[in-house]
Amino acid sequence: MTRTSPLTITGHGQFAKVWALVKPYWQSEEKGAAWLLLAAVVGLNLGLVYLLVLLNEWNNAFYNSLQDKNFDAFKAQLAKFAVIAFVYIAVAVYQIYLRQLLQIRWRRWLTGVFLQDWLANRCYYRIELRNQGTDNPDQRIQEDLQTFTEGTLALALDFMRSVVTLLSFITILWGLSGPLSFTLGGHDVTLPGYMVWFAIGYAVLGTFITHKLGRPLIALNFQQQRFEADLRYGLVRLRENAEGVAFYRGEDDERRALGTRFEHVVDNFVKLMNRNKRLGWFTNMYDQLAVIFPFMVGAPRYFGGQIQLGGLMQIASAFGRVQDSLSWFVSAYASIAAWKATVDRLTSFHEAIQDAQSAAAEGRGVNLQSDAADASLAAEHLTLELPDGRVLLDDAAVTLAPRENLLLTGPSGSGKSTLFRALAGIWPFGRGRVRVPAGARTLFLPQRPYLPLGTLREVVCYPAGAASASDADITAALTACELGHLVPALDEDHRWAQRLSPGEQQRLAFARALLYRPDWLFLDEATSALDDALERKLYELVRDRLPDTTVISIAHRPTVAAWHARRLQLEPNEASGGRLVSAPI
Fold first, then answer.
1. I want to staple 301 with a disulfide (CB 3.0 to 4.6 A). Which of 142, 306, 490, 559 is the partner?
2. Sign for the pseudo-dihedral over CA of 46, 49, 55, 59
3. What value does the mean pLDDT take over residues 354-360?
4. Helix (H, G, I), strand (E, B), or coil: what is residue 440?
């Protein structure tokens, strides 16, 4: 039974959508380990801040020893630095290690959730048919989830460290910078902790300008991820259909199509480059000016003899920490933009999944029911539509008794394969009811069988699993279907969809049926790549070895009719929809 998804994306607020992605993991069955790891990472993060405070204090003593030319103090400070630096390195290494461990555990859990929700109730199929704008779900599950977990932890922990660093160093800077006195409009003004105010003003101005310059990066990053995924998908499609392209001599057309996809990548990337260049001009100037800025504002007190060199260096260090913390938004803006684009892609993807799940739960489309009281397969008031609303079949009814083999015929494009999809319960457009005997095993063999990745053993036993059949049974099934030459390769892992000819693939599908032993076997042009002799042999195998299996076939060859007791003709009608009529064998 499919469980209820722990992810539910509701509302339109950005924070609500982010929270919907973040919250479930921390309340899941892994919450104990997750919170423990997070506590360890946070503790190490805070430890790094404390070590930075110690290094700030060390700056004062070290540079004073240089100014006083006190060699003994100099050596003592070097030894102290070695201890602090070693501890800092160890804490930094394990902080990153534990963060990555938490990241991969979170990603593993989210990937499992997205895969289960995407595959449940055939949502993957409904989404593709409805074209709901969820491009490249493979990229969203593989790459976007990795970017989301990595980015969320990095941004959240870095922001937390910036806040703690700010609170730690702003007090130090306030005490070190002292007051600044000046005359304004004839009045004497004293500004206590003046370097704190300079740091705040500097960071606020930088944040405002950065946001203005970098805001378009969010949309550009969203588009870049999409175009990159489109290009990768096109390359994968070419590899999977290499033989077809070669037969058609379609290299030039493929090159043009892939070139067009790559041009989209390049054009958007150039826009990203230009926007990043503008942002880079400002942020680099901002960072470089921040190096000298504390010395400029602290120089009057140093040259006035109010502080020593060590005090000036400590002020510069504290100012740098405060300014870095206040400027977190400036430094992290590009990462935030990429992260937000990832969040948008994941939330829109899961919203599409939720819509498909709702459609399945509400029974929209053809309703597939299990009937324990009747051994027949029946369709009642069945109306099938295309995604554009055009009616293929209107208010049809058919009942099939067990072992009453049926042949379904009709012109190409009339909707025969769509009727099979409806009987399988996967066609979402239309209405009516399909009743299947409770506990019945059904198997659909399309014209082009699906061959999953894996060993030949896994391919021929699909979908029951490699352990569902013995070597002897698999060998017997393959040999019966004239695929005995493949038996030595049972445990070899190849791309079998490219390695086997169309005829071999169709024979392998029949071997799969012999092993699976379905109660209802649907054959959609399943012998179209075979000669008459092989077709006859395979139907004989089904008749002799699967005597309790009911066969429903779609075929254009008249020779197939001999293996069926009944025939239905699908007669199309564009005005009112097609209808099923009985026809002689």
1. 306
2. negative
3. 78
4. coil
9 secondary structure, DSSP code = -
Comparing C-alpha atoms, which of 443, 313, 423, 300 is closest to residue 368? 423
Joined tokens for residue 584: 């002689």
Distance CA 259, CA 251 (A): 12
Asked if 238 contacts 254 with a C-beta cutoff of 8 angstroms, the reply is yes
pLDDT tens-digit readout, 425-436: 778 788 888 888
Unique residue bearing structure tokens 């699993």: 465
Cα-based angle 239, 412, 246 (whole degrees, multiple of 5): 20
Residue 178 DSSP class: -
Residues 318-330, mean pLDDT to the nearest whole number: 76
How far, in Å, CA of 531 to CA of 551, rounded?
A: 20
Q: What is the DSSP letter of 141?
A: I
Structure tokens at 502: 């169309």
d(C-alpha 85, C-alpha 88), whole Å: 5
Residues 302 and 182: their CA atoms lie apart, in Å, by: 17
Tokens of 566: 């009944």
- Distance CA(556)–CA(174), nearest Å, equals 88
d(CA 65, CA 61): 6
Q: CA–CA separation, 376 vs 403, rounded Å?
A: 10
DSSP 43-98: HHHHHHHHHHHHHHHHHHHHHHHHHHT-HHHHHHHHHHHHHHHHHHHHHHHHHHHH
Q: Is 153 within 8 Å of 34 (Cβ atoms)?
A: no
> Please, are residues 529 and 498 in contact by the beta-carbon 8 Å criterion?
no
Q: What is the Cα–Cα distance from 276 to 337, expressed in whole angstroms?
A: 11
Higher pLDDT, 226 or 472: 472
pLDDT band at 247 (very low <50, low <70, confident <90, very high): low
Specify the fold of 367-582: Rossmann fold (3.40.50)
For the whole prediction, is pTM greater than 0.70?
no
Average pLDDT for 255-284:
88
Q: Is 141 exposed, middle or buried (0-12, 13-18, 19+ CB in 10 A)?
A: middle
Distance between CA 13 and CA 52 in Å, rounded? 37
Residue (of 351, 365, 347, 377) closest to 425 by Cα position: 365
Q: What digits encode the pLDDT tens for the residues 439-469?
A: 888 899 989 898 988 899 999 999 888 899 9
**Residue 4, pLDDT score:** 45
Percent of the chain topping pLDDT 90: 30
| Crossing angle of the two packed helices 71-119 and 123-130, in degrees rounded to 10 | 80
Smallest CA-to-CA distance from 254 within 268, 269, 267, 241 is with 241
Q: Residue 298 corresponds to which tokens in the numbers above?
A: 């602290």
DSSP 452-494: -SEEHHHHHHTTT-GGGS-HHHHHHHHHHTT-GGGGGGTT-EE
CB 203 within 8 A of CB 290: no
Q: What one-letter code names the amino acid at 549?
A: T
pLDDT of residue 30 exceeding 80: yes
| Sequence spans of domains, the chain | 14-361, 367-582
Rg of the chain on CA atoms, in Å: 35
CATH superfamily, domain at 14-361 = ABC transporter type 1, transmembrane domain (1.20.1560.10)
Please report, for the chain, how many H helices and E strands are present, in that order.
18, 14
